[in-house]
Amino acid sequence: MRLAIYGGTFDPIHSGHLAVAREAARVCSLDRVLFIPASIPPHKEGATAAAYEDRYRMVELACRGELRFEASRIEAGQQSSYSIRTIERLRAEHPAGGLFFLIGADAFAEIKTWHRWREVVEAVEFIVVSRPGYEYEIPGNARVQRLDSLRLPVSSSDLRRRLAAGETPPEIPPEVLRYIRANGLYQRSDERNYVNFHQ
Ligand code: ATP
Ligand code: MG
């Protein structure tokens, strides 16, 4: 079983996330990609625009059509979402399989700021996907497969702004857009409205 962890805030999930996972699954012959929304993302000071349950639900809706994609609640709850904890739990569940960590160039560039990053680097093989405007260095002992075939300018931050401006961005899957509209999400882009926003 070749399993990839794909963490993020997914605030909201977009076509870039899905394209990245599809390409990684194809190139690296993954059996499963676990999309794992962070409840309290340490690198965003815990602040998100939409609540955990809404972000999880949108990820679940977006993963429905893809056999190898699965939404995971492993980072639900009140604790900070440190990847090393998630990795340790998944490793215990899949002791024999290959464990991959799928990540964009922007996030990988900051790997050395992560809680217990050396242990993260020892525990998984990274699949790092290019992202326009971001370069990264590979720490000495990290196992990294570079995936440089994609250059997708889409980001959740940009989509939040466009949703707040009343646009219907085509980068959001239709079922996710329906959920956003039905629940009145992202109507304002002011970051002071974020869940857990700290002044
Ligand atoms: P935000 O703008 O709120 O940070 P985002 O679009 O970066 O949102 P995240 O949930 O932060 O989305 O990202 C989850 C993971 O997906 C990260 O590893 C990130 O690097 C990767 N990712 C997101 N968008 C892209 C993209 N367009 N190309 C490559 N990787 C991406
Ligand atoms: Mg991001």
Classify the helix fraction into a percent range.
Answer: 25-40%
- Return the CATH architecture: 3-Layer(aba) Sandwich
Please describe the biggest sheet, giving its number of strands, its sense, and whether it closes into a barrel: 6 strands, parallel
Distance, first to last CA: 44 Å
Uncertain parts: none
Bound molecules: adenosine-5'-triphosphate, magnesium ion
User: How many helical stretches?
Assistant: 7
- CATH T-level fold name: Rossmann fold
> What's the domain count?
1
Write the layout of secondary structure elements.
Layout: E1 2-8, H1 15-27, E2 32-37, H2 52-63, E3 69-71, H3 83-93, E4 98-104, H4 105-108, H5 117-123, E5 125-129, E6 143-147, H6 156-164, H7 174-182
Parallel strand pairs: 1-2, 1-4, 2-3, 4-5, 5-6
Helix pairs in contact: 2-7, 3-5
Bound molecules: adenosine-5'-triphosphate (ATP) and magnesium ion.
Adenosine-5'-triphosphate (ATP) is lined by residues 8-11, 16-17, 20, 103-104, 106-107, 129, 131, 152, 154-157.
Description of the structure:
The longest helix has 13 residues, at 15-27. The protein has seven helices and six strands; from the N terminus they run βαβαβαβααββαα. The chain has 199 residues and is an alpha/beta fold. The protein has helices at 15-27, 52-63, 83-93, 105-108, 117-123, 156-164, 174-182; strands at residues 2-8, 32-37, 69-71, 98-104, 125-129, 143-147. It has a six-stranded parallel beta sheet with strand order 3-2-1-4-5-6, with helices on both faces. The chain has a single domain (2-151), classed as HUPs (Rossmann fold). Adenosine-5'-triphosphate is lined by residues 8-11, 16-17, 20, 103-104, 106-107, 129, 131, 152, 154-157.
